[in-house]
């Protein structure tokens, strides 16, 4: 059930090299910020609100990291194998599929979003669904290191721009106050350097932030929901295999929810380390673009942040705001 689908085959697509002129765009929203500040969930919901395309640029760096892990490249050997890795990325095909409905894995997200629809995203690397594999602790640990290399960033930049060009929605006309108004098509992309490097002329740049503890707690909530979900699925499959549905006849012990996910403090440490690497790297570090609107969502609801960004975009497109503050 997909409402949008983009595919980029790196080796055959038309690319734009670093520094060359960007393709003309209608309306681009760049959302940057530190890890777990709410970028991707917000970007997906804003894209859905405005009928725009969406690209999660972090997933491209995560795919690059997965390629490195699968090649057996050790974390401390990345530098030695970087040109091999950059050509693997250039030869890879990647597809980002936007799902209409929030899937099982987004239960926490759906709760946070209230009545907002937050589409899920499926990521395909060389036609294989790697949506889950790119979010494992191994990838989390290595991704900032992989993303710090210039040749990797150059290969990913080509992919980002090509994916965005393919994902951009086309313009439509609406009737407002008796007048026909052109609504531009567009794309929302989230990451670390979208407003500074990838789309420096984006029509709207948002820098999303939240306190380190709020971010760690949100990630912990996500993990604990995933673990509970997995345990529930296992319980269901066990009860199916034993022919009962929790009827007390089963000889197998009930599956208990294992606390095999990290503590909030562990997550806070991991986020802090990754932020440090992203902020202090030489190439395209995480920075607040001078013309970005900074939103600290520590005390905002998910809906508040999505609606305020969507309304800011509407204002800049010459449209009426839809939500009152
Ligand atoms: N304002 C908010 N209040 C509470 N939870 C939020 C808010 N914004 C985002 N979240 C939740 O925070 C978690 C991390 O968000 P995510 O979009 O994955 O961040 P990022 O892409 O920056 O890593 C998700 O579970 C999301 O639903
Ligand atoms: N435009 C981007 C997007 C992500 N990155 C890097 C930096 C991050 O540590 C990793 C993973 O990004 P991702 O957005 O998936 O990470 P979080 O969801 O915030 O935990 O990729 C980047 O350097 N530039």
UniProtKB/TrEMBL annotation:
Signal peptide (residue range): none
UniProt entry tagged with the keyword Acyltransferase: no
Keyword Nucleotidyltransferase on entry: no
Reaction it catalyzes: CMP + ATP = CDP + ADP; dCMP + ATP = dCDP + ADP
Enzyme class, spelled out: transferase
Annotated region (Disordered), positions in chain: 231-255
The protein's Enzyme Commission number: 2.7.4.25
Matching SUPFAM superfamilies: P-loop containing nucleoside triphosphate hydrolases
Molecular function (Gene Ontology), one example: ATP binding
Keywords: ATP-binding, Kinase, Nucleotide-binding, Transferase
One Pfam family here: Cytidylate_kin
Cytidylate kinase domain residues: 29-165, 174-232, 263-313
A single GO BP: nucleobase-containing compound metabolic process
Biased composition range(s): Polar residues: 236-253
Superkingdom of origin: Eukaryota
Family: Belongs to the cytidylate kinase family. Type 1 subfamily.
Protein's name according to its UniProt entry: (d)CMP kinase
